[in-house]
């Protein structure tokens, strides 16, 4: 396959017109045709690397719109309610959410689930790349209804079993819903298992002041100080949210080379605050972006996440250049791959997997076309844009904005039926 006469951004020369040759799932050749971009009349597409959604809950689709206008403690309480999702329901949700994320440009996805098998089955069905982090909880110090809890002594055997599900396209990682749901012993165990299996640890941390106060009350340390004191914090730890940090905690994260996954839309919607990513970035901390969940975002659109991040940090910092376009694009490409550990560079270069997004230059968002600055069009017009075509390992999985691997209509109908069943169970009442 050859993508002819397309625009892409070369690291050395910038935007140029080229032919991209693809074979055996990888970019084999890049033939630069024109660096001037004076005549774009015959160019239909701008091509970018595929994006990385670094944090996604595929099993919370049925909570979409039921948990609006709740703070994070109320939301978690309602989510841990009486409605028990079967594996079939979890699978149907996961297929829909993952398809939706791919259609928004995510070619690698970092999913989390307390019941990982339906999500793993969805990954296999859709041939998704990335990782699934299995969440284990053995205590509850938070507000309201606890999540599903496991016995500490059983967690190691459970993880050893599920890690066998990994394949050449996705890895299996470990984690916990939060420090509030993990004993010190579990935190240490997760660290050991991650090292034993060359895996990573994912954990929601400092998701608002309530979660910090809870940890202080029960263990007399903030979550970051606790992880540091337990000697577990390190490069293989991915800290999700990290919205409530002080300068000393930022320094600890940097010292231990942990990564932070920023979820600005979710954090704003649930009122937990804004992660200090500028300060983290200035200390050299690796940052990725995640959409979190349908229950608190409510989209699975990682490009929209980058757009919102650009706006909210410019406002908070009172600096229009607080986050550059280049930084935002790195967060959803190169940095995302580093956080998951895919081994990909997230660039359009010879030898890289052909995970590519084709953006139609006939979309209104690219007018005036003569101005170029195509990445700026993507970021600042994100609510109006989705990729025309998505390639994963050189295979077309979205064409003309339509998912090609499975019937979109059937996926949507099955997800909707799960919603009708849930509404019947709840008798029309929603959690408030």
Structure summarized in a few sentences:
The chain is built from 15 helices and 17 strands.
Strand content: 15-25%
Query: What distance separates the N and C termini?
Result: 52 Å
Kindly report the average pLDDT value. 93
- Spatial ordering of strands, largest sheet: 12-11-10-9-8-7-6-5-13
DSSP summary, beta strand count: 17
Computed CA radius of gyration, to the nearest angstrom: 21 Å
- C-alpha geometry: globular
CATH superfamily of the largest domain: Metal-dependent hydrolases
Looking at CATH, which topology of the largest domain would you report?
TIM Barrel
- Count of helix runs: 15
Find the structural class using helix and strand composition.
alpha/beta
Q: What is the level 1 CATH name of the largest domain? A: Alpha Beta
Number of domains: 2
Spans of at least 5 consecutive residues with low confidence: none
**Helix-residue proportion:** 25-40%
CATH architecture label of the largest domain: Alpha-Beta Barrel
Describe the structure.
This protein has two domains: 100 residues, Urease, subunit C, domain 1, CATH 2.30.40.10; 289 residues, TIM Barrel (Alpha-Beta Barrel). It contains 15 helices and 17 strands. Helix 11 packs across helix 12. It is globular.
Topology:
Elements: E1 2-10, E2 14-23, E3 26-34, E4 45-49, E5 51-57, H1 72-79, H2 87-103, E6 106-113, H3 116-126, E7 129-135, H4 152-162, E8 170-176, H5 184-196, E9 201-205, H6 209-219, H7 223-229, E10 237-241, H8 247-256, E11 259-262, H9 264-269, H10 277-282, E12 287-289, E13 292-293, H11 302-317, H12 325-331, H13 334-340, E14 356-360, H14 374-380, E15 389-392, E16 395-399, E17 402-403, H15 408-426
Parallel strand pairs: 5-6, 5-13, 6-7, 7-8, 8-9, 9-10, 10-11, 11-12
Antiparallel strand pairs: 1-2, 2-3, 4-14, 14-15, 15-16, 16-17
Helix pairs in contact: 2-3, 2-15, 11-12
């Amino acid at each position: 396959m050859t993508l002819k006469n397309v625009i892409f951004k070369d690291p050395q020369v910038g935007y140029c017109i080229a032919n991209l040759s693809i074979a055996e799932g990888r970019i084999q050749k890049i033939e630069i045709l024109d660096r001037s971009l004076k005549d774009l009349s015959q160019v239909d597409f701008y091509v970018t690397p595929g994006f990385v959604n670094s944090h996604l809950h595929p099993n919370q689709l049925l909570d979409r719109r039921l948990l609006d206008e709740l703070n994070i403690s109320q939301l978690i309480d309602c989510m841990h309610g009486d409605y028990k999702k079967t594996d079939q329901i979890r699978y149907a949700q996961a297929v829909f959410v993952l398809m939706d994320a791919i259609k928004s440009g995510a070619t690698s996805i970092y999913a989390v689930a307390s019941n990982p098998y339906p999500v793993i089955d969805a990954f296999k069905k859709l041939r998704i790349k990335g990782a699934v982090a299995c969440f284990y909880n053995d205590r509850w110090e938070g507000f309201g209804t606890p999540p599903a809890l496991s016995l500490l002594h059983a967690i190691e055997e459970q993880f050893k079993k599920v890690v066998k599900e990994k394949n050449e396209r996705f890895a299996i990682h470990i984690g916990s819903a939060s420090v509030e749901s993990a004993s010190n012993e579990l935190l240490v165990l997760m660290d050991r298992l991650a090292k034993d299996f060359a895996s990573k640890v994912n954990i929601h941390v400092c998701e608002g002041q309530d979660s910090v106060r809870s940890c202080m009350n029960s263990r007399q340390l903030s979550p970051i100080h606790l992880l540091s004191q337990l000697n577990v914090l390190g490069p293989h730890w991915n800290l999700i949210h990290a919205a409530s940090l002080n300068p000393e905690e930022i320094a600890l994260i940097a010292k231990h080379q942990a990564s932070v996954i920023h979820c600005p839309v979710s954090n704003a919607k649930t009122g937990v605050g804004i992660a200090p990513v500028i300060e983290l970035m200035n200390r050299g901390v690796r940052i990725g972006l995640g959409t979190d969940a349908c229950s608190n975002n409510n989209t699975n659109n990682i490009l929209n996440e980058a757009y919102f991040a650009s706006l909210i940090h410019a406002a908070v910092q009172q600096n229009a250049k607080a986050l550059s376009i280049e930084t935002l694009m790195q967060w959803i490409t190169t940095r995302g791959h580093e956080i998951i550990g895919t081994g990909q560079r997230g660039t359009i270069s010879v030898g890289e997997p052909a995970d590519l997004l084709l953006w139609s230059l006939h979309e209104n968002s690219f007018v005036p076309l003569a101005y170029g600055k195509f990445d700026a069009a993507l970021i600042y017009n994100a609510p109006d844009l989705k990729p025309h075509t998505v390639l994963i390992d050189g295979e077309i999985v979205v064409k003309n904005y339509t998912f090609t691997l499975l019937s979109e209509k059937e996926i949507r109908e099955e997800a909707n039926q799960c919603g009708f069943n849930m509404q019947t169970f709840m008798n029309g009442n929603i959690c408030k």
